[in-house]
Amino acid sequence: MTLSRTGAARWWALAVAGLAQLMVVLDSTIITIALPALQDELGMSDASRSWVITAYALAFGGLLLLGGRLSDVLGARRAFVLGLVGFALTSALAGGAPTWGLLLVARAGQGVSAALLAPAALAVISATFTAPRDRATAFGVYGALTGAGAVIGLLLGGFLTEWAGWRWCLLINVPIVAVALIGTSRVIPTMERRGVRLDWAGALTSVVGMAAIVFALTEVATRGPGDLVVVATLGLGLVSMAAFVTVQSRSASPLLPLRILLNRLRGGALLAVALPQLSLFGLFLVLTYWFQQILGFSPMQAGFAFLPLALSIGIGSTAIAGALSQRLAPRNLIVPSLIVMAVGFVLLVGLDPESGNVYLTRFVPAEILIGLGLGCTITPAVESATSNVDSRDTGAASGAVNAVTQLGGSVGTALLNTVATLAAATAMSEGRSPSDQLHYTTVGFDAALTVAAVMLVVAAGVVTVVMPARVRESPAEPSAPVAEG
């Protein structure tokens, strides 16, 4: 049985799949604001603290391509249910963890479950909505959840940390999964599975490659760029990714068929999904410290301080992108949106924390521009990356979208944190008073935000070159499916 593509049931299917997508995106950031409280209770060091976030991101991003293929093999509905159950169990383990070591193991388990759940959710949406207008609306909602979900995670994390304790930032997933499972049983029917073999060599090289690169970029801030561990790990990551490409070109059932990447529309769309994440997740890190450590906001106030960004992403991805995507080629909407994002980042450079109400005068306008730009980028990019894909590659394309999102976020967080740390260290070496820590911190943040803005301009240029000006594609030829049973 395949998904019904008519009637109100498909919109309920979108709600259930969207709830799951929101949950996995929330968990990328919901624990961020809770880190100080978590660190105190479990006795974590400053060096190990960041791994609460990184353990989830690495497992999630590293296994997403395999998760996308498993969605094809198992059938999207079955993969969706297994992902939900695994996410609930590991969230309960993380929320009740008595030691930080067990917490990190559970966070990695959440990432493994998310790597199966996220591609299945996107595959459900892609298979359900085929009419252009409805498809644009559905992907607008998906874009809003993907873009705003990380911001909502910061808001919800601040509220839960302040009023219920940091453990509820993880335990909240259990009732969410319960609702999603009930909805799945009612509105998401059995979907087809594909007769493809799993590419274990591709899985191994992709996981090692992505994990090594993110680890190296994370450690360079403390070890230095010339450290042997950093250089060796980065080299391992690059070699592994090169091996991954070679394996994919020769495999009969690749995790990521190169035909997806070599298609200018889909390859450019994946770049348009990935490249903004480099800047966005670094922004979360910078603003979290600005709000709590410099402006003195409480965890809940810091969460609400991100609200303009979340609302703007929602408006951009639904109201604006939903209307314009029917009139403009994806490239003609994505490129200006990336420039708008870059302008928002520039507004945050050179802030003086003692100059009046800096939140209203600089942060809010910047968040609005960044949110609108991101929202108008995600919707056409995700739709282009998953449209007219051969039915054999539905899960792979969905996994690729989520993989580049998570990899971009992980690399961006590590890269911009490293830029901020090195810039602050350089400022400190200039001979100012050691007590002028605020100056060093803001110098580092300015450097990170400037690099982020430059990356967005570069992303706009890359998308301009790669994506076609006009889209002329015929529907993909379906392959023979195998009934899920």
Describe this structure in words.
This protein is an all-alpha fold and 485 residues long. It is 78% helix and 0% strand. It is globular.
Short description:
78% of the residues lie in helices and 0% in strands. It is an all-alpha fold and 485 residues long.
Write the layout of secondary structure elements.
Elements: H1 9-29, H2 35-42, H3 46-49, H4 51-74, H5 76-95, H6 100-128, H7 132-163, H8 168-171, H9 173-187, H10 200-223, H11 228-250, H12 258-262, H13 264-294, H14 299-305, H15 307-324, H16 330-347, H17 358-386, H18 394-428, H19 437-466
Helix pairs in contact: 1-6, 1-7, 1-9, 4-5, 4-6, 4-10, 4-18, 5-6, 5-9, 6-18, 7-14, 7-15, 7-17, 10-11, 10-18, 13-16, 13-17, 13-18, 13-19, 15-17, 16-17, 16-19, 18-19
Describe this protein with a few key phrases:
about 0% strand; disordered N terminus; about 475 residues
**Number of E-state strands:** 0
Radius of gyration: 21 Å
Helical amount: over 70%
Q: Tell me the number of helical segments per DSSP (H or I, 4 or more residues long).
A: 19
Termini, distance in Å? 10 Å
Content of β-strand: under 5%
Element-by-element helix/strand order = HHHHHHHHHHHHHHHHHHH
